[in-house]
């Protein structure tokens, strides 16, 4: 009712006056879909991935999730909008849908603008390739990352085709991580198949500097460090 009343009280001149273009563009509509809309400053677009990554199947109520279909238009806008000079990817995720996560990884790694990631809290499971999909990566000193083989929920038919599918999916993840970080495939597989750390599973938990020491993440740092690095990259590329 307020919007209708306010329109009625406007003069014809006010109604017909074209609005100034909003630098925020399509970000306004994203806030209604679960992704926090923020006016990017100094040409830097922040993109956050919080909670679980939701793919083709909806997660249950009460579970914090980031929907991958909400991230796709943001990433496309980062590539196409001339006002956006770089992307800051902030992660605090427990993982989620593998194919959705890999789709986001491929999109971000494929943009021409400089990109920097920062792992806060956690970057677990499919959050590992997400952390390394940018041009440069940071991890907070207390943040953790869990490396483990692909898991599945529900009934799996134990036939050769099923096992082959999971094997190939695992190979895609390993190859992506190795190609976008400094860690070797042998070293990454060593941590992924470690049987000494997790009680009911195999894998490894990396805390802060450990992820840097093994070549997975580039540097330990804060949001200031990530922004400084991103601005440095923007200037060096002359964007």
Structure in words:
The structure is a single chain. This protein has 239 residues and is of the alpha/beta class. Helices cover 40% and strands 20% of the residues. The protein is built from 10 helices and 8 strands. It has helices at residues 2-9, 12-16, 27-30, 68-80, 98-109, 127-132, 160-179, 185-192, 209-213, 223-237; strands at 44-54, 65-67, 86-96, 115-123, 136-139, 144-147, 204-207, 219-220. The strands form 2 sheets. A 6-stranded parallel β-sheet has the order 2-1-3-4-5-8, with helices on both faces. Helix 5 links the parallel strand 3 and strand 4. Helix 4 (68-80) packs parallel to helix 5. The longest helix is centred in the C-terminal third of the chain and has 20 residues, at 160-179. It starts with a helix and ends with a helix.
A few lines on this structure:
By secondary structure, the protein is of the alpha/beta class.
Which regions have little confidence, pLDDT < 50, spanning 5+ residues?
1-11, 18-39
Percent in helix: 40-55%
Q: How many DSSP helices?
A: 10
Average pLDDT: 80
Biggest sheet architecture: 6 strands, parallel
Overall body shape: globular
Kindly report the spatial arrangement of strands forming the biggest sheet. 2-1-3-4-5-8
The number of strands is 8
| Structure class | alpha/beta
**Estimated radius of gyration:** 21 Å
What percentage of the residues does DSSP assign to strands (E)?
15-25%
Order of helices and strands: HHHEEHEHEHEEHHEHEH
Q: What is the CA–CA distance across the termini?
A: 45 Å
């Amino acid at each position: 009712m307020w919007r209708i009343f306010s329109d009625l009280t406007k003069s014809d001149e006010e109604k017909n006056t074209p609005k100034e273009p909003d630098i925020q563009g399509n970000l306004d509509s994203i806030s209604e879909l679960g992704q926090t809309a923020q006016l990017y400053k100094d040409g830097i677009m922040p993109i956050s991935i919080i909670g679980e990554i939701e793919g083709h199947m909806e997660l249950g109520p009460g579970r914090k999730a980031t929907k991958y279909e909400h991230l796709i238009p943001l990433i496309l806008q980062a590539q196409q909008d001339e006002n956006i000079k770089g992307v800051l990817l902030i992660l605090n995720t427990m993982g989620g849908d593998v194919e959705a996560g890999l789709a986001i990884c491929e999109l971000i790694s494929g943009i021409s603008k400089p990109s920097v990631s920062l792992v806060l809290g956690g970057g677990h499971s499919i959050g590992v390739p997400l952390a390394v999909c940018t041009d440069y990566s940071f991890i907070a000193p207390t943040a953790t990352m869990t490396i483990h083989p692909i898991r599945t929920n529900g009934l799996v038919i134990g036939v050769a085709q099923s096992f082959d599918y999971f094997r190939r999916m695992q190979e895609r993840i390993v190859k992506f991580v190795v190609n976008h970080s400094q860690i070797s495939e042998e070293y990454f597989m060593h941590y992924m198949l470690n049987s000494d750390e997790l009680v009911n599973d195999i894998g490894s938990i990396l805390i802060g500097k450990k992820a840097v020491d093994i070549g997975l993440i580039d540097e330990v740092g804060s949001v200031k460090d990530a922004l400084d690095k991103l601005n440095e990259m923007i200037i060096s590329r002359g964007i």
